[in-house]
Amino acid sequence: MTTNSLFFTLSYLIITLLPFTEFGFAFNALMMCLAVWHSVLLSLNKQGIRNAILNAVALIGMAITVMSIGLKSTVSVFVALMLLACQLKVIQATTLKQWRQVLVLNFFTFPCAFLFSQSLYVALLVLIMLGFNLVLMQTLQKVGTFKAAGQFVISKIMLSCILSVFLILFLPRLPAFWQMPGPQLAKTGLSETVSPFSISKLSQSDELAFRALLNETSIQQGQTPLYWRAIIHDKFDGQQWTIANLQKAPISYKKRDELPSYTIIAQPSNTPWLYALGFSTSPTALVQSSYFGTLFRTDKLTSTFEYVVTPAKGNANTTLSGWQYRNNTTIVKRLNPRAQNLAQQWDQQTNTTAEFITVMRRYFIEQQFSYTLSPQVTTSEHMVDQFLFEYKSGFCGHYASTVAMMMRSIGIPARLVSGYLGAEYNEKQGYFSIYQYDAHAWVEYFVPNEGWKSLDPTAWVSPERLQGSLSQYQPLANEFQSNLGMSLAAFSDFASINWLRIKLEELDYQWTRWVLNFDQQKQTSMLEAMLGKNYQHFSGVIAILTLGMIFTSLFFYIQLNSKSKEPDAIKHYRRLIALSSINLEHTAPKQSIALLQQQFPQQSDALIRFYADFSANRYQGKTFGKNQNIHAKNLINSIKTKAKRTI
Amino acid sequence: MFGTFNQLFARFIRKKHTADSITFKHNTIYILPSTMGTGFIGVCVLNFLLGINYQNNLLLAVSYLMIMLLIIALLYGYLNFSASEIKLVTVNSAHCNTPPSVTLAIATSKPLLDLTIDNEALEEPIHILNVEKPILHCVSFKVKRGKHLVGQFKFMSHFPFGLVSVWSYLYLNKFIYAYPNPLESNDPIYAFTSNENSNDLCSSSPIVDEFKQLTPYQSGMNMHRVSWKHYAKSQQLLVKEYEGELGSQVVRFDYDLLQGTVEQRLSKLSYLVLEAEASDTLYAFKLGGFELSANRGEAHKIKCLEALSDY
């Protein structure tokens, strides 16, 4: 049982240490200690720990688990306790019954990883673990070698996989019985407060944020920059922008029929905010549009989520009420006096908002502002002043904050939008990938009678950033990669690695689209397409019937296969003795051949030859090959024809 | 309620499976998930509930996968077991310590994996890992002295994965005797009584060594008396008989004359019978109301021993 128990311990450890199961350092350390303890016990060949010790360890372990994870994320605690319990059971197990319990329980413990991540790799990992578990179940019966059990299991598990996919596709799906707490996971590149001035290094993640399926050709060619709006920030306290109160106020907009809808598959972000281009609404259940035309979900995204976005008529609102005006022009007057002064000067030089923006733009270009992912941290309380007159370099958050604040200071309603800019287009599959490192912030300002308009001051400084994704943006490549850390995107210079990255990304896309997001809606439309509207309700019956047929044929197939096959030499020998007029079944082969020779003297030589081949094969272990087969057949045929002639 | 059901089921099994041989096929095989399989189903339901409630396709897939595995296990379990035949070869009555056994022939055209044979009289079930070709299997019984019904054999397999129990029965309506273990008798010789009509310890009629005739050999006859000359010539087993043999030396064993507890006395009797048989002595036998006149040979010995078992 050594392999068994080591395999169990190893798999529990792997699940514990998977990057997305965040059980905290203490729990990880606990599981590692238990694994080490277990392997030491195994190497000392000790079995059966006293229950008192195990109980003590279990109690301490539970305390560590709860402290390490916290009671808030019930699912994580639950899975962690499950892992702990299984590990202790493995250490304790000595009898066959206990091993069986562990083996069965593993069928629950391993798939628990799916609660945290459903990526293709995790699915493969869990499948391999379950397969190995099955092999151990088979070897526990001691009926064959490990290898034989492995071969047996591989074919069975493959068949079961295919059949279960079939069931997933065709068996009617049940709705959730009750609401379950989701695991707390996933970070998003977006946050509800934006405070760029206190960040020294914008850490970038190459994690996927979402994917978009757009059909518009102009967008696919990368002509218009893609601004994915997600969160509106309209309060600025001189240091940070905070999320708007109305961000979660649902409003229904009329959709604009002239513009096509598109689909977005969002990765779990643990926030309710969704992404869309411009003013949008959505026909998908659970998705609502806010006052600002951004989309949000009624609950948090804990697993991948697919929704449809429809452009909406929201921009028609060209007036601003008094409280809204006040809300969008408030700044802390005390802070950043130099920036306010500069804005006043420009205001006096210009007549319209557009002119004001032109002047502002000229200033940024003339003063040679630069874009960086590693800006200096402001030390003064007048953060905007320090950025504007001293450092002159920063990332999107700096530019957007500064511009919005300056516009507000002279009475132009302005707000900060955070979302994503750009996308990586996959030509083959026809979709866009938007990564966390594409997170961006820009400004929206209000012009009376025209409505809200967007403005990206970062574009003045680095216009190339607008096209495509940040990973495709050359000037910043080094900085981008150093901020990314170890990941495939960091090596996108090498053609082969970039190719691999894109291939994996494609695979993951298909996986997400077809496996993870296959829901009731998709099933219905698939069944409608396959079976027609009237028959789709019978899909369950059809599935069961098909399964029945598959199993019946499998039954007969195994039965046919399990009949042990006789070697060729014996088959031919049997056919030969059947030709004789005497019953030779109980005669020794040598004697039978002698008798046959008497009966068929013409074939005497051939019979002697056959016997030589036969005995060489049966008694000396030589092969009964093609030539021997042909001779034997010829012999049998010649005897048969002769027998016919005599009749 | 459960008890009555079990009784009914036992009666059903007795009625259906009473035979000397059984071929496992669709109407003689019983198949259900094993204890482990039940746990497996439980876990499967749990996965299904989780999958449904989290709308998690992968968890759902795992639960379907488990059900499929279970069905496949049922199929393989059935096919592993089916088409094999189990036949009773002999019921070997013997002394308790020998021990008594039943020989079964297991015939199969394909490998039969993980076969367990169980009977009430077995200490623990016999586990045969792999039956690849027809075999004879001797099932030793652990029983007390007495006459026992062989009764019900249960054949079971948990192949594959241990998830399913595939089983069948063979009900043998045959008796098996567990003879008392021989116990060397230190009792004085008066336990021996001579010929039926004399009360002397030993009949004193002279042994006449005169050859009388040759008779065909019957099983259990003393091999010393076989006329090997004849066998060499004609390959016929013939036994020499001598004049006046019957009157030679006759002993009479009587339970009532022995000392000790019931079991001890039976064991002593058993020893005496074996000794007498080994020394080719004629012996009469009396056990309570059961009486046998003086005789010898295998059949006579077995009658005596069976009587001892059944006492």
Provide a descriptive summary of the structure in words:
The complex is a heterodimer of chains A (647) and B (311). Chain A has 647 residues and is an alpha+beta fold. In chain A, 50% of the residues lie in helices and 12% in strands. Chain A has 22 helices and 17 strands. In chain A, strands 1, 3, 4, 6, 13, 16 and 17 form a seven-stranded antiparallel sheet that branches. In chain A, strands 7-10-5-2-15-14 form a six-stranded antiparallel sheet, covered by helices on one side. In chain A, helix 1 (2-17) runs antiparallel to helix 4. Chain B has two domains: 2-179, no CATH class; 189-208 and 244-310, no CATH class. Chain B is built from six helices and 15 strands. In chain B, the strands form four sheets. In chain B, strands 2, 4, 6, 7, 9 and 10 form a six-stranded mixed sheet that branches. Chain B has a four-stranded antiparallel sheet with strand order 1-3-5-8, with no helix packed on it. In chain B, a hairpin with a 6-residue loop joins strand 6 (112-119) and strand 7. Chain B starts with a helix and ends with a helix. At the A-B interface, helix 5, helix 6, helix 7 and helix 18 of A face helix 2 and helix 3 of B.
